[in-house]
Design goal:
- The structure is a homodimer of 306-residue chains.
- Chain A has 306 residues and is α/β, with parallel strands linked by helices.
- Chain A has one domain: 3-Layer(aba) Sandwich (UDP-N-acetylmuramoyl-L-alanine:D-glutamate ligase), CATH 3.40.1190.20.
- Helices cover 37% and strands 26% of the residues of chain A.
- The first copy, chain A, contains 11 helices and 14 strands.
- A 9-stranded mixed sheet of chain A has the order 6-5-1-9-10-11-12-13-14, sandwiched between helices.
- In chain A, helix 1 packs across helix 8, helix 8 crosses helix 9 and helix 9 packs across helix 11.
- The radius of gyration of chain A is 18 Å and the shape is globular.
- Chains A and B meet through helix 7, strand 14, helix 9 and helix 11 of A and helix 7, strand 14, helix 9 and helix 11 of B.
- Chains A, B: Keywords: Kinase, Transferase.
- Chains A, B: This is Sugar or nucleoside kinase, ribokinase family.
- Chains A, B: Pfam families: PfkB.
- Chains A, B: GO terms for molecular function: kinase activity.
Chain lengths: 306, 306
Amino acid sequence: MSLVVVGSMAFDAIETPFGKSDKIIGGAGTYIAWCASNFTSVKQISVVGGDFPQEELDALTSRKVNLEGVQIKKDEKTFFWSGRYHMDMNSRDTLDTQLNVLENFQPVVPESYQDCEFLMLGNLVPAVQRSVIEQLKTRPKLIVMDTMNFWMEIAMDDLKQTISMVDVLLVNDSEARQLSGEYSLVKAAAAIMKMGPKYLIIKKGEHGALLFHQNKVFFAPALPLEEVFDPTGAGDTFAGGFIGHIARTKDISFENMKTAIIIGSAMASYCVEKFGTERLREIGKADIDERLSQFVQLVNFDIDLV
Amino acid sequence: MSLVVVGSMAFDAIETPFGKSDKIIGGAGTYIAWCASNFTSVKQISVVGGDFPQEELDALTSRKVNLEGVQIKKDEKTFFWSGRYHMDMNSRDTLDTQLNVLENFQPVVPESYQDCEFLMLGNLVPAVQRSVIEQLKTRPKLIVMDTMNFWMEIAMDDLKQTISMVDVLLVNDSEARQLSGEYSLVKAAAAIMKMGPKYLIIKKGEHGALLFHQNKVFFAPALPLEEVFDPTGAGDTFAGGFIGHIARTKDISFENMKTAIIIGSAMASYCVEKFGTERLREIGKADIDERLSQFVQLVNFDIDLV
Protein backbone atom coordinates (compact mmCIF):
# COMPACT_ATOMS: atom_id res chain seq x y z
CA MET A 1 0.00 0.00 0.00
CA SER A 2 1.39 3.39 -0.86
CA LEU A 3 1.16 7.15 -1.18
CA VAL A 4 0.83 8.43 -4.75
CA VAL A 5 1.59 12.11 -5.40
CA VAL A 6 0.56 13.95 -8.55
CA GLY A 7 1.98 17.39 -9.23
CA SER A 8 4.16 19.58 -11.38
CA MET A 9 7.95 19.46 -11.35
CA ALA A 10 9.24 22.75 -12.61
CA PHE A 11 11.75 25.56 -12.82
CA ASP A 12 10.95 28.71 -10.86
CA ALA A 13 12.50 32.16 -10.83
CA ILE A 14 11.48 34.07 -7.72
CA GLU A 15 11.79 37.65 -6.54
CA THR A 16 11.01 38.62 -2.98
CA PRO A 17 11.70 41.80 -1.01
CA PHE A 18 14.76 39.92 0.32
CA GLY A 19 16.32 38.86 -2.95
CA LYS A 20 16.06 37.14 -6.29
CA SER A 21 16.67 33.50 -7.14
CA ASP A 22 18.24 32.01 -10.22
CA LYS A 23 16.18 29.53 -12.16
CA ILE A 24 15.70 26.97 -9.42
CA ILE A 25 13.84 23.69 -8.96
CA GLY A 26 10.19 24.10 -8.06
CA GLY A 27 6.72 22.72 -8.75
CA ALA A 28 3.94 21.50 -6.45
CA GLY A 29 4.88 17.85 -6.94
CA THR A 30 8.51 18.57 -6.11
CA TYR A 31 7.69 20.30 -2.83
CA ILE A 32 5.19 17.61 -1.85
CA ALA A 33 7.69 14.83 -2.57
CA TRP A 34 10.57 16.50 -0.69
CA CYS A 35 8.31 17.02 2.29
CA ALA A 36 6.28 13.78 2.38
CA SER A 37 9.39 11.64 1.94
CA ASN A 38 10.35 12.57 5.51
CA PHE A 39 7.43 10.44 6.64
CA THR A 40 6.87 7.69 4.09
CA SER A 41 7.89 6.47 0.64
CA VAL A 42 6.27 8.24 -2.30
CA LYS A 43 5.17 7.17 -5.79
CA GLN A 44 5.41 10.26 -7.95
CA ILE A 45 3.38 11.17 -11.06
CA SER A 46 4.61 14.14 -13.07
CA VAL A 47 6.24 15.27 -16.30
CA VAL A 48 9.53 17.06 -17.00
CA GLY A 49 11.49 18.07 -20.09
CA GLY A 50 14.93 16.96 -21.20
CA ASP A 51 16.35 20.03 -19.48
CA PHE A 52 15.40 18.80 -16.00
CA PRO A 53 18.63 17.87 -14.16
CA GLN A 54 19.23 14.16 -13.66
CA GLU A 55 20.78 14.86 -10.25
CA GLU A 56 17.44 16.31 -9.11
CA LEU A 57 15.72 13.08 -10.06
CA ASP A 58 18.47 11.07 -8.36
CA ALA A 59 18.12 13.14 -5.19
CA LEU A 60 14.44 12.23 -5.00
CA THR A 61 15.11 8.56 -5.77
CA SER A 62 17.58 8.44 -2.89
CA ARG A 63 14.73 9.62 -0.61
CA LYS A 64 12.56 6.68 -1.66
CA VAL A 65 10.55 8.72 -4.12
CA ASN A 66 9.61 6.29 -6.91
CA LEU A 67 9.79 8.11 -10.25
CA GLU A 68 8.31 5.41 -12.48
CA GLY A 69 5.29 7.65 -13.04
CA VAL A 70 7.37 10.69 -14.01
CA GLN A 71 7.44 11.15 -17.77
CA ILE A 72 10.63 12.62 -19.24
CA LYS A 73 9.99 14.38 -22.57
CA LYS A 74 13.55 14.52 -23.91
CA ASP A 75 12.83 17.00 -26.68
CA GLU A 76 10.66 19.36 -24.69
CA LYS A 77 11.21 21.87 -21.92
CA THR A 78 10.17 21.72 -18.28
CA PHE A 79 7.35 23.93 -17.00
CA PHE A 80 8.66 27.36 -15.98
CA TRP A 81 7.12 29.92 -13.64
CA SER A 82 8.45 33.27 -12.57
CA GLY A 83 6.91 35.54 -9.95
CA ARG A 84 7.48 38.50 -7.69
CA TYR A 85 6.19 38.71 -4.12
CA HIS A 86 4.93 41.92 -2.56
CA MET A 87 6.08 43.17 0.82
CA ASP A 88 3.29 41.36 2.68
CA MET A 89 4.46 38.05 1.13
CA ASN A 90 0.82 37.05 0.70
CA SER A 91 0.26 38.52 -2.72
CA ARG A 92 2.41 38.03 -5.80
CA ASP A 93 2.55 38.90 -9.47
CA THR A 94 3.23 36.24 -12.05
CA LEU A 95 5.95 37.57 -14.35
CA ASP A 96 6.15 34.63 -16.75
CA THR A 97 4.53 31.22 -17.26
CA GLN A 98 5.81 28.74 -19.85
CA LEU A 99 3.64 25.62 -19.75
CA ASN A 100 5.97 23.59 -22.00
CA VAL A 101 5.58 19.87 -21.10
CA LEU A 102 2.53 20.64 -18.93
CA GLU A 103 0.55 21.83 -21.94
CA ASN A 104 -0.37 18.32 -23.10
CA PHE A 105 0.33 16.41 -19.92
CA GLN A 106 -1.51 13.09 -19.86
CA PRO A 107 -0.59 11.33 -16.62
CA VAL A 108 -0.19 7.56 -16.85
CA VAL A 109 -0.54 5.60 -13.62
CA PRO A 110 1.99 2.73 -13.67
CA GLU A 111 0.71 -0.74 -12.76
CA SER A 112 2.99 -0.71 -9.71
CA TYR A 113 1.09 2.34 -8.37
CA GLN A 114 -2.25 0.48 -8.31
CA ASP A 115 -1.74 -0.32 -4.63
CA CYS A 116 -2.33 3.40 -3.95
CA GLU A 117 -3.94 3.83 -0.53
CA PHE A 118 -3.44 7.59 -0.21
CA LEU A 119 -3.62 9.93 -3.19
CA MET A 120 -2.33 13.50 -3.06
CA LEU A 121 -3.43 15.60 -6.02
CA GLY A 122 -1.15 18.61 -6.10
CA ASN A 123 -2.40 21.77 -7.80
CA LEU A 124 -2.85 21.02 -11.52
CA VAL A 125 -5.47 21.18 -14.29
CA PRO A 126 -8.57 19.66 -12.61
CA ALA A 127 -9.13 17.27 -15.55
CA VAL A 128 -5.57 15.96 -15.15
CA GLN A 129 -6.13 15.41 -11.44
CA ARG A 130 -9.37 13.57 -12.25
CA SER A 131 -7.67 11.37 -14.84
CA VAL A 132 -5.43 9.93 -12.11
CA ILE A 133 -8.41 9.11 -9.89
CA GLU A 134 -10.10 7.42 -12.85
CA GLN A 135 -7.05 5.31 -13.71
CA LEU A 136 -6.94 3.75 -10.24
CA LYS A 137 -8.78 0.41 -10.22
CA THR A 138 -9.43 0.57 -6.47
CA ARG A 139 -10.45 3.84 -4.91
CA PRO A 140 -7.79 5.05 -2.46
CA LYS A 141 -8.65 5.19 1.23
CA LEU A 142 -8.17 8.97 1.14
CA ILE A 143 -7.94 11.41 -1.76
CA VAL A 144 -6.58 14.86 -0.92
CA MET A 145 -6.76 17.64 -3.50
CA ASP A 146 -5.04 20.99 -3.66
CA THR A 147 -6.15 23.63 -6.18
CA MET A 148 -6.03 27.37 -6.78
CA ASN A 149 -8.10 30.38 -7.86
CA PHE A 150 -6.79 30.17 -11.44
CA TRP A 151 -8.95 27.07 -12.11
CA MET A 152 -11.97 28.78 -10.54
CA GLU A 153 -11.59 31.51 -13.13
CA ILE A 154 -11.09 29.41 -16.26
CA ALA A 155 -12.48 25.94 -15.48
CA MET A 156 -15.01 26.12 -12.66
CA ASP A 157 -17.27 23.29 -13.90
CA ASP A 158 -14.31 21.03 -14.46
CA LEU A 159 -12.93 21.94 -11.06
CA LYS A 160 -16.23 21.19 -9.31
CA GLN A 161 -16.37 17.80 -11.00
CA THR A 162 -12.98 16.84 -9.57
CA ILE A 163 -13.82 18.34 -6.19
CA SER A 164 -16.91 16.11 -6.03
CA MET A 165 -14.65 13.03 -6.16
CA VAL A 166 -12.21 13.82 -3.32
CA ASP A 167 -12.26 13.44 0.46
CA VAL A 168 -10.16 16.41 1.54
CA LEU A 169 -9.93 19.74 -0.29
CA LEU A 170 -7.19 22.27 0.38
CA VAL A 171 -7.75 25.93 -0.53
CA ASN A 172 -6.73 29.28 0.90
CA ASP A 173 -9.18 31.72 2.46
CA SER A 174 -9.81 33.86 -0.62
CA GLU A 175 -10.24 30.72 -2.74
CA ALA A 176 -12.75 29.33 -0.25
CA ARG A 177 -14.72 32.56 -0.57
CA GLN A 178 -14.48 32.52 -4.37
CA LEU A 179 -15.50 28.87 -4.65
CA SER A 180 -18.48 29.19 -2.29
CA GLY A 181 -19.60 32.78 -2.81
CA GLU A 182 -19.69 33.13 1.00
CA TYR A 183 -17.60 35.66 2.93
CA SER A 184 -17.78 33.93 6.32
CA LEU A 185 -15.32 31.04 6.28
CA VAL A 186 -17.68 28.97 8.43
CA LYS A 187 -20.44 29.39 5.83
CA ALA A 188 -17.96 28.89 2.98
CA ALA A 189 -16.82 25.61 4.54
CA ALA A 190 -20.39 24.35 4.86
CA ALA A 191 -21.09 25.22 1.21
CA ILE A 192 -17.89 23.57 -0.06
CA MET A 193 -18.44 20.37 1.92
CA LYS A 194 -21.81 20.12 0.14
CA MET A 195 -19.85 19.91 -3.13
CA GLY A 196 -18.39 16.55 -2.08
CA PRO A 197 -15.36 16.70 0.20
CA LYS A 198 -16.02 15.47 3.74
CA TYR A 199 -13.08 17.50 4.99
CA LEU A 200 -12.01 21.01 4.08
CA ILE A 201 -8.73 22.67 4.97
CA ILE A 202 -8.63 26.45 4.61
CA LYS A 203 -5.07 27.79 4.59
CA LYS A 204 -4.61 31.36 5.85
CA GLY A 205 -0.85 31.75 5.31
CA GLU A 206 0.75 33.48 8.30
CA HIS A 207 -2.62 33.24 10.07
CA GLY A 208 -2.63 29.43 10.19
CA ALA A 209 -5.12 26.91 8.85
CA LEU A 210 -8.61 25.65 9.63
CA LEU A 211 -9.83 22.06 9.29
CA PHE A 212 -13.58 21.59 8.90
CA HIS A 213 -15.50 18.29 9.12
CA GLN A 214 -19.25 18.07 9.65
CA ASN A 215 -19.90 20.60 12.40
CA LYS A 216 -16.39 20.34 13.83
CA VAL A 217 -13.53 22.74 13.36
CA PHE A 218 -9.86 22.65 14.28
CA PHE A 219 -7.39 25.49 14.07
CA ALA A 220 -3.63 25.17 13.53
CA PRO A 221 -1.55 28.34 13.91
CA ALA A 222 1.37 29.27 11.74
CA LEU A 223 4.59 29.64 13.67
CA PRO A 224 5.34 33.37 14.10
CA LEU A 225 8.59 33.83 12.17
CA GLU A 226 11.11 36.66 12.25
CA GLU A 227 11.28 36.55 8.49
CA VAL A 228 9.45 34.80 5.69
CA PHE A 229 12.18 34.61 3.11
CA ASP A 230 10.29 32.95 0.24
CA PRO A 231 6.71 31.66 0.53
CA THR A 232 6.90 29.68 -2.73
CA GLY A 233 5.88 26.07 -2.13
CA ALA A 234 4.66 26.64 1.43
CA GLY A 235 1.17 25.40 0.56
CA ASP A 236 2.54 22.36 -1.29
CA THR A 237 4.87 21.60 1.62
CA PHE A 238 1.92 21.88 4.00
CA ALA A 239 0.06 19.35 1.84
CA GLY A 240 3.10 17.07 1.78
CA GLY A 241 3.39 17.09 5.57
CA PHE A 242 -0.35 16.50 5.95
CA ILE A 243 -0.56 13.52 3.59
CA GLY A 244 2.88 12.22 4.64
CA HIS A 245 1.77 11.92 8.26
CA ILE A 246 -1.52 10.32 7.32
CA ALA A 247 0.15 7.80 5.01
CA ARG A 248 2.71 6.96 7.69
CA THR A 249 0.11 6.40 10.40
CA LYS A 250 -2.58 5.00 8.06
CA ASP A 251 -5.17 6.75 10.23
CA ILE A 252 -7.77 8.94 8.52
CA SER A 253 -9.67 9.96 11.65
CA PHE A 254 -10.46 13.64 12.33
CA GLU A 255 -8.23 13.47 15.41
CA ASN A 256 -5.27 12.28 13.36
CA MET A 257 -5.94 14.91 10.70
CA LYS A 258 -5.48 17.55 13.42
CA THR A 259 -1.99 16.21 14.07
CA ALA A 260 -1.37 16.01 10.32
CA ILE A 261 -2.20 19.70 9.95
CA ILE A 262 0.20 20.66 12.72
CA ILE A 263 2.89 18.63 10.95
CA GLY A 264 2.05 20.32 7.64
CA SER A 265 2.32 23.72 9.35
CA ALA A 266 5.66 22.81 10.90
CA MET A 267 7.05 21.69 7.53
CA ALA A 268 5.76 24.84 5.81
CA SER A 269 7.44 26.98 8.48
CA TYR A 270 10.78 25.45 7.42
CA CYS A 271 10.05 25.80 3.70
CA VAL A 272 9.74 29.58 3.82
CA GLU A 273 13.09 30.11 5.54
CA LYS A 274 15.11 29.88 2.30
CA PHE A 275 14.57 30.10 -1.46
CA GLY A 276 12.74 27.22 -3.13
CA THR A 277 13.27 23.72 -1.76
CA GLU A 278 16.65 24.61 -0.22
CA ARG A 279 15.57 24.43 3.42
CA LEU A 280 13.55 21.26 2.89
CA ARG A 281 16.70 19.53 1.64
CA GLU A 282 18.58 20.40 4.82
CA ILE A 283 16.18 19.31 7.54
CA GLY A 284 15.77 15.90 9.12
CA LYS A 285 13.93 14.13 11.90
CA ALA A 286 15.51 16.09 14.75
CA ASP A 287 14.59 19.43 13.14
CA ILE A 288 11.03 18.32 12.56
CA ASP A 289 10.63 17.12 16.14
CA GLU A 290 12.07 20.37 17.45
CA ARG A 291 9.62 22.46 15.48
CA LEU A 292 6.69 20.27 16.46
CA SER A 293 7.63 20.92 20.08
CA GLN A 294 7.49 24.64 19.34
CA PHE A 295 3.94 24.21 18.03
CA VAL A 296 2.94 22.42 21.20
CA GLN A 297 4.35 25.34 23.22
CA LEU A 298 2.66 27.83 20.95
CA VAL A 299 -0.90 26.64 21.53
CA ASN A 300 -0.81 24.66 24.75
CA PHE A 301 -2.80 26.13 27.64
CA ASP A 302 -4.48 25.02 30.85
CA ILE A 303 -8.04 25.96 31.41
CA ASP A 304 -9.80 25.89 34.74
CA LEU A 305 -13.38 26.71 33.89
CA VAL A 306 -14.78 29.79 35.58
CA MET B 1 -7.02 44.18 46.95
CA SER B 2 -8.87 44.98 43.75
CA LEU B 3 -9.11 45.47 40.01
CA VAL B 4 -9.30 49.09 38.88
CA VAL B 5 -10.52 49.79 35.33
CA VAL B 6 -10.04 53.10 33.56
CA GLY B 7 -11.90 53.75 30.32
CA SER B 8 -14.51 55.72 28.48
CA MET B 9 -18.23 55.26 29.00
CA ALA B 10 -20.00 56.50 25.92
CA PHE B 11 -22.80 56.54 23.41
CA ASP B 12 -22.15 54.79 20.09
CA ALA B 13 -24.05 54.73 16.81
CA ILE B 14 -22.91 51.84 14.67
CA GLU B 15 -23.46 50.77 11.08
CA THR B 16 -22.42 47.34 9.87
CA PRO B 17 -23.24 45.44 6.66
CA PHE B 18 -25.90 43.70 8.78
CA GLY B 19 -27.69 46.73 10.17
CA LYS B 20 -27.61 50.00 12.02
CA SER B 21 -27.92 50.63 15.73
CA ASP B 22 -29.64 53.47 17.53
CA LYS B 23 -27.53 55.55 19.88
CA ILE B 24 -26.50 52.77 22.23
CA ILE B 25 -24.26 52.39 25.27
CA GLY B 26 -20.58 51.92 24.45
CA GLY B 27 -17.09 52.94 25.48
CA ALA B 28 -13.98 50.94 26.31
CA GLY B 29 -14.55 51.17 30.05
CA THR B 30 -18.14 49.98 29.68
CA TYR B 31 -17.16 46.86 27.71
CA ILE B 32 -14.28 46.06 30.08
CA ALA B 33 -16.54 46.41 33.13
CA TRP B 34 -19.37 44.29 31.68
CA CYS B 35 -16.87 41.60 30.77
CA ALA B 36 -14.49 41.60 33.76
CA SER B 37 -17.38 41.60 36.24
CA ASN B 38 -18.05 37.99 35.24
CA PHE B 39 -14.82 37.12 37.01
CA THR B 40 -14.24 39.62 39.81
CA SER B 41 -15.48 42.88 41.29
CA VAL B 42 -14.39 46.05 39.52
CA LYS B 43 -13.55 49.59 40.63
CA GLN B 44 -14.37 51.83 37.70
CA ILE B 45 -12.80 55.18 36.75
CA SER B 46 -14.55 57.15 34.02
CA VAL B 47 -16.64 60.21 33.21
CA VAL B 48 -20.15 60.62 31.82
CA GLY B 49 -22.51 63.50 31.18
CA GLY B 50 -25.91 64.18 32.71
CA ASP B 51 -27.47 62.42 29.71
CA PHE B 52 -26.03 59.02 30.67
CA PRO B 53 -28.92 56.80 31.81
CA GLN B 54 -29.06 56.10 35.54
CA GLU B 55 -30.29 52.56 34.82
CA GLU B 56 -27.03 51.86 33.00
CA LEU B 57 -25.09 52.87 36.08
CA ASP B 58 -27.41 50.80 38.27
CA ALA B 59 -26.94 47.76 36.01
CA LEU B 60 -23.18 47.97 36.52
CA THR B 61 -23.53 48.51 40.28
CA SER B 62 -25.65 45.37 40.50
CA ARG B 63 -22.72 43.46 38.94
CA LYS B 64 -20.35 44.64 41.67
CA VAL B 65 -18.87 47.40 39.57
CA ASN B 66 -17.97 50.18 42.02
CA LEU B 67 -18.70 53.55 40.41
CA GLU B 68 -17.19 55.82 43.05
CA GLY B 69 -14.51 56.82 40.52
CA VAL B 70 -17.00 57.64 37.77
CA GLN B 71 -17.51 61.39 37.52
CA ILE B 72 -20.97 62.53 36.46
CA LYS B 73 -20.89 65.99 34.82
CA LYS B 74 -24.56 66.93 35.12
CA ASP B 75 -24.41 69.85 32.71
CA GLU B 76 -22.32 68.20 30.05
CA LYS B 77 -22.85 65.49 27.46
CA THR B 78 -21.42 61.98 27.33
CA PHE B 79 -18.73 61.10 24.78
CA PHE B 80 -20.29 60.08 21.46
CA TRP B 81 -18.78 58.02 18.64
CA SER B 82 -20.35 56.95 15.39
CA GLY B 83 -18.78 54.62 12.84
CA ARG B 84 -19.42 52.43 9.85
CA TYR B 85 -17.78 49.03 9.34
CA HIS B 86 -16.71 47.74 5.94
CA MET B 87 -17.63 44.32 4.65
CA ASP B 88 -14.47 42.71 6.06
CA MET B 89 -15.44 43.98 9.55
CA ASN B 90 -11.78 44.79 10.21
CA SER B 91 -11.74 48.30 8.84
CA ARG B 92 -14.14 51.09 9.70
CA ASP B 93 -14.76 54.75 9.03
CA THR B 94 -15.43 57.14 11.88
CA LEU B 95 -18.52 59.17 10.96
CA ASP B 96 -18.64 61.41 14.01
CA THR B 97 -16.73 61.96 17.26
CA GLN B 98 -18.01 64.29 19.97
CA LEU B 99 -15.54 64.31 22.86
CA ASN B 100 -17.86 66.22 25.22
CA VAL B 101 -16.99 65.23 28.81
CA LEU B 102 -13.83 63.45 27.64
CA GLU B 103 -12.30 66.70 26.41
CA ASN B 104 -11.15 67.82 29.83
CA PHE B 105 -11.30 64.52 31.66
CA GLN B 106 -9.10 64.53 34.76
CA PRO B 107 -9.47 61.16 36.45
CA VAL B 108 -9.48 61.20 40.23
CA VAL B 109 -8.58 57.96 41.99
CA PRO B 110 -10.77 57.63 45.10
CA GLU B 111 -9.04 56.72 48.36
CA SER B 112 -10.97 53.44 48.43
CA TYR B 113 -9.27 52.44 45.14
CA GLN B 114 -5.78 52.68 46.64
CA ASP B 115 -5.79 48.94 47.31
CA CYS B 116 -5.53 48.46 43.52
CA GLU B 117 -3.63 45.27 42.75
CA PHE B 118 -4.49 45.03 39.07
CA LEU B 119 -4.89 48.09 36.85
CA MET B 120 -6.54 47.94 33.43
CA LEU B 121 -5.99 51.09 31.38
CA GLY B 122 -8.59 51.04 28.63
CA ASN B 123 -7.87 52.99 25.45
CA LEU B 124 -7.74 56.71 26.32
CA VAL B 125 -5.46 59.75 26.03
CA PRO B 126 -2.05 58.38 27.15
CA ALA B 127 -1.56 61.25 29.61
CA VAL B 128 -4.89 60.42 31.25
CA GLN B 129 -3.88 56.77 31.56
CA ARG B 130 -0.58 57.86 33.11
CA SER B 131 -2.27 60.17 35.58
CA VAL B 132 -4.06 57.16 37.11
CA ILE B 133 -0.79 55.25 37.51
CA GLU B 134 0.75 58.31 39.17
CA GLN B 135 -2.13 58.75 41.62
CA LEU B 136 -1.69 55.24 43.00
CA LYS B 137 0.50 55.29 46.11
CA THR B 138 1.53 51.65 45.73
CA ARG B 139 2.36 50.34 42.28
CA PRO B 140 -0.16 47.65 41.24
CA LYS B 141 1.07 44.09 40.81
CA LEU B 142 0.18 44.26 37.12
CA ILE B 143 -0.64 47.21 34.87
CA VAL B 144 -2.26 46.36 31.53
CA MET B 145 -2.65 49.05 28.89
CA ASP B 146 -4.73 49.15 25.74
CA THR B 147 -4.18 51.86 23.14
CA MET B 148 -4.76 52.61 19.47
CA ASN B 149 -3.16 54.00 16.31
CA PHE B 150 -4.81 57.42 16.84
CA TRP B 151 -2.41 58.20 19.75
CA MET B 152 0.56 57.05 17.65
CA GLU B 153 -0.39 59.68 15.11
CA ILE B 154 -0.99 62.65 17.40
CA ALA B 155 0.85 61.90 20.66
CA MET B 156 3.63 59.36 20.08
CA ASP B 157 6.04 60.74 22.71
CA ASP B 158 3.30 60.89 25.29
CA LEU B 159 2.19 57.40 24.36
CA LYS B 160 5.70 55.99 24.69
CA GLN B 161 6.04 57.55 28.12
CA THR B 162 2.94 55.74 29.35
CA ILE B 163 3.95 52.51 27.60
CA SER B 164 7.26 52.61 29.48
CA MET B 165 5.34 52.38 32.78
CA VAL B 166 3.16 49.32 32.11
CA ASP B 167 3.65 45.56 32.30
CA VAL B 168 1.37 44.37 29.50
CA LEU B 169 0.59 46.29 26.32
CA LEU B 170 -2.32 45.41 24.05
CA VAL B 171 -2.25 46.51 20.41
CA ASN B 172 -3.46 45.11 17.12
CA ASP B 173 -1.14 43.93 14.35
CA SER B 174 -1.08 47.14 12.33
CA GLU B 175 -0.55 49.18 15.49
CA ALA B 176 2.36 46.91 16.49
CA ARG B 177 3.92 47.59 13.10
CA GLN B 178 3.29 51.33 13.36
CA LEU B 179 4.67 51.57 16.89
CA SER B 180 7.83 49.57 16.15
CA GLY B 181 8.50 50.35 12.50
CA GLU B 182 8.95 46.60 11.94
CA TYR B 183 6.81 44.54 9.55
CA SER B 184 7.53 41.13 11.07
CA LEU B 185 5.40 40.78 14.20
CA VAL B 186 8.18 38.83 15.89
CA LYS B 187 10.58 41.72 15.33
CA ALA B 188 7.89 44.26 16.24
CA ALA B 189 7.28 42.47 19.52
CA ALA B 190 10.98 42.49 20.40
CA ALA B 191 11.19 46.22 19.65
CA ILE B 192 8.08 47.08 21.68
CA MET B 193 9.18 45.05 24.70
CA LYS B 194 12.35 47.17 24.71
CA MET B 195 10.09 50.21 25.27
CA GLY B 196 9.13 48.89 28.71
CA PRO B 197 6.35 46.28 28.75
CA LYS B 198 7.51 42.81 29.73
CA TYR B 199 4.51 41.31 27.95
CA LEU B 200 2.97 42.22 24.62
CA ILE B 201 -0.35 41.04 23.26
CA ILE B 202 -0.90 41.54 19.53
CA LYS B 203 -4.56 41.21 18.56
CA LYS B 204 -5.27 40.05 15.01
CA GLY B 205 -9.08 40.17 15.01
CA GLU B 206 -10.53 37.09 13.32
CA HIS B 207 -6.99 35.69 13.13
CA GLY B 208 -6.55 35.43 16.89
CA ALA B 209 -3.98 36.94 19.21
CA LEU B 210 -0.30 36.49 20.09
CA LEU B 211 1.26 36.85 23.54
CA PHE B 212 4.98 37.62 23.64
CA HIS B 213 7.26 37.50 26.70
CA GLN B 214 11.05 37.38 26.51
CA ASN B 215 11.71 34.82 23.79
CA LYS B 216 8.42 33.00 24.33
CA VAL B 217 5.27 33.24 22.26
CA PHE B 218 1.75 31.91 22.69
CA PHE B 219 -1.03 31.96 20.14
CA ALA B 220 -4.75 32.07 20.87
CA PRO B 221 -7.11 31.58 17.93
CA ALA B 222 -10.33 33.46 17.40
CA LEU B 223 -13.35 31.20 17.28
CA PRO B 224 -14.47 30.84 13.64
CA LEU B 225 -17.93 32.41 13.60
CA GLU B 226 -20.72 32.16 11.06
CA GLU B 227 -21.26 35.86 11.38
CA VAL B 228 -19.56 38.77 13.07
CA PHE B 229 -22.52 41.02 13.66
CA ASP B 230 -20.77 44.01 15.26
CA PRO B 231 -17.06 44.08 16.15
CA THR B 232 -17.39 47.21 18.31
CA GLY B 233 -15.93 46.59 21.75
CA ALA B 234 -14.39 43.21 20.88
CA GLY B 235 -10.90 44.42 21.80
CA ASP B 236 -12.12 45.99 25.05
CA THR B 237 -14.03 42.82 25.90
CA PHE B 238 -10.90 40.79 25.20
CA ALA B 239 -9.01 43.03 27.61
CA GLY B 240 -11.78 42.67 30.20
CA GLY B 241 -11.66 38.88 30.02
CA PHE B 242 -7.87 38.90 30.22
CA ILE B 243 -7.58 41.16 33.26
CA GLY B 244 -10.72 39.67 34.84
CA HIS B 245 -9.22 36.20 34.85
CA ILE B 246 -5.88 37.44 36.16
CA ALA B 247 -7.52 39.45 38.94
CA ARG B 248 -9.67 36.46 39.90
CA THR B 249 -6.73 34.05 40.06
CA LYS B 250 -4.16 36.62 41.29
CA ASP B 251 -1.57 34.81 39.19
CA ILE B 252 0.56 36.87 36.82
CA SER B 253 2.68 34.01 35.44
CA PHE B 254 3.13 33.58 31.69
CA GLU B 255 1.27 30.25 31.92
CA ASN B 256 -1.74 31.93 33.52
CA MET B 257 -1.65 34.74 30.97
CA LYS B 258 -2.11 32.09 28.26
CA THR B 259 -5.32 31.00 29.92
CA ALA B 260 -6.33 34.65 30.38
CA ILE B 261 -5.95 35.25 26.64
CA ILE B 262 -8.13 32.27 25.79
CA ILE B 263 -10.76 33.65 28.18
CA GLY B 264 -10.46 37.09 26.57
CA SER B 265 -10.92 35.51 23.15
CA ALA B 266 -13.96 33.56 24.32
CA MET B 267 -15.57 36.70 25.74
CA ALA B 268 -14.82 38.68 22.56
CA SER B 269 -16.43 35.93 20.49
CA TYR B 270 -19.67 36.55 22.40
CA CYS B 271 -19.39 40.32 22.18
CA VAL B 272 -19.47 40.39 18.38
CA GLU B 273 -22.68 38.33 18.12
CA LYS B 274 -24.98 41.31 18.71
CA PHE B 275 -24.87 45.11 18.64
CA GLY B 276 -22.93 46.87 21.37
CA THR B 277 -22.94 45.32 24.83
CA GLU B 278 -26.21 43.44 24.23
CA ARG B 279 -24.74 39.95 24.12
CA LEU B 280 -22.45 40.57 27.10
CA ARG B 281 -25.50 41.40 29.18
CA GLU B 282 -27.11 38.06 28.36
CA ILE B 283 -24.33 35.59 29.05
CA GLY B 284 -23.40 33.93 32.32
CA LYS B 285 -21.08 31.32 33.75
CA ALA B 286 -22.54 28.38 31.80
CA ASP B 287 -22.18 30.20 28.49
CA ILE B 288 -18.59 31.14 29.24
CA ASP B 289 -17.68 27.58 30.21
CA GLU B 290 -19.32 26.23 27.08
CA ARG B 291 -17.36 28.56 24.84
CA LEU B 292 -14.11 27.83 26.66
CA SER B 293 -14.71 24.15 25.93
CA GLN B 294 -15.06 25.04 22.25
CA PHE B 295 -11.66 26.72 22.38
CA VAL B 296 -10.12 23.61 23.90
CA GLN B 297 -11.63 21.55 21.04
CA LEU B 298 -10.47 24.10 18.51
CA VAL B 299 -6.76 23.87 19.28
CA ASN B 300 -6.29 20.59 21.10
CA PHE B 301 -4.20 17.99 19.29
CA ASP B 302 -2.07 14.94 20.05
CA ILE B 303 1.42 14.82 18.72
CA ASP B 304 3.53 11.72 18.46
CA LEU B 305 6.86 13.00 17.30
CA VAL B 306 8.04 11.58 13.98
